[in-house]
Amino acid sequence: MFRLFCAAICLLLALPAQALAQEDAPTPAALELAAIVAGQQQLQNVLNATAINLEKGLQPIVKRELAAHLVDDPMIIRIVAKNIKNRLISAMAGEYADFQTRSAHIYMKHFSDQEIHDMIAFYHTPTGKKLSEVTPTLTAESIAMGQEWAKNALQGRFDEILQQELSGFVK
């Protein structure tokens, strides 16, 4: 089962790569913009989010696989899942050039060549450099604020809505 899971991950990762290989190569300007905007910090953000999701998803799979070998030690399960996660993240980090190429394709999809050059010029200004530097912080703070806002907005409403929805089915 675990091998099937790994094969599915590899297949899912390979399909977009094949689609990108069939597309035109990104322009040098699009690659430059990707290097500025989707730089190492953006890749690190993607890797961090992926690591969190992998860690949650791997433990039940590892537990099931180890149980087939009569191993049910929670510490071993955590260690094996963490090792697998770390190795997968390390493999992804080695694919930075592909990450930039894919980012460049996204910019080319939404912006003309002139607009890409304009953005590059902007990112070379003091304001553009500052925006590039603080974007990861802005993103992290915005996500945290959004989660806090959603929590506050939903607080107390869930139970009320759940009871209303169940009232038609439960006596």
UniProtKB/TrEMBL annotation:
InterPro entries referenced in this protein's UniProt entry, alphabetically: DUF2059
Leader sequence segment: 1-21
Sorted UniProt keywords: Signal
Superkingdom field: Bacteria
Domain DUF2059, first and last residues per copy: 98-154
Protein's recorded name: DUF2059 domain-containing protein
